[in-house]
Design goal:
The chain is α/β, with parallel strands linked by helices. Strands 1-7-6-2-5-4-3 form a seven-stranded mixed sheet, sandwiched between helices. Strand 3 and strand 4 form a beta hairpin. Helix 2 packs across helix 3. The two termini are 28 Å apart. The N terminus is likely disordered.
Length: 182
């Protein structure tokens, strides 16, 4: 029997075995790769909400995607909808032009596009989650990693395999990779 990932917050969310492994991973970087329509983005959304709500560090959460369109359609809009559904967002707590959500407990979620890697600079974040990371610019991923150095935070990357000719494959899965992933 599977347990919900959240107690109180999204207690009705029952993750799959693979999603539960991701939610509870102690690793500094966690990569979730699977085919289209496998539930990665759904898991990312639930993960961001639970972790942001339970955050006690005083730092913010970062969510990113390859483009602003991907960001708005795949993660920012659905996260804001879920937060409203569960009553976790402040009244007028989302600023669509600044891409910031403020929760009722004061915690904030920043949303950024990897089209502009410099927009990650200056953010003090305790954790980050990226959707379709293999389509993001490598410079953007490096900037996210640099932001997490301050807090020693975790980085969750979600994506769909995009062949063997992208930086994600070369960095994590190629025979020359320093990460030695399967």
């Amino acid at each position: 029997m599977r347990q919900g990932a959240g107690k109180g917050v999204l207690a009705d969310y029952v993750p799959t075995a693979n999603a539960l492994h991701m939610h509870t991973s102690p690793a500094k970087e966690t990569i979730t790769l699977s085919p289209t329509r496998a539930g990665k983005t759904r898991s990312l959304i639930r993960h961001v909400i639970i972790r942001s709500w339970n955050n006690r560090t005083g730092f913010d959460y970062l969510v990113y995607a390859p483009t602003y369109r991907d960001l708005a359609v795949l993660v920012e809009g659905p996260i804001v909808s879920e937060l409203k559904k569960y009553g976790l967002i402040r009244t007028n707590g989302h600023n669509w032009s600044l891409h910031i959500t403020t929760l009722k407990n004061g915690n904030r979620i920043h949303y950024r596009s990897a089209e502009e890697p410099d927009r990650f600079n200056g953010l003090d974040i305790f954790e980050a989650a990226g959707d379709e990371f293999t389509l993001c610019k490598k410079e953007a991923i490096d900037n996210v990693r640099n932001r997490l150095l301050l807090t020693n935070g975790q980085h969750f990357m979600f994506g769909t395999p995009k062949g063997t000719s992208n930086w994600g494959f070369n960095e994590f899965f190629s025979p020359e990779s320093a990460y030695c992933l399967p």
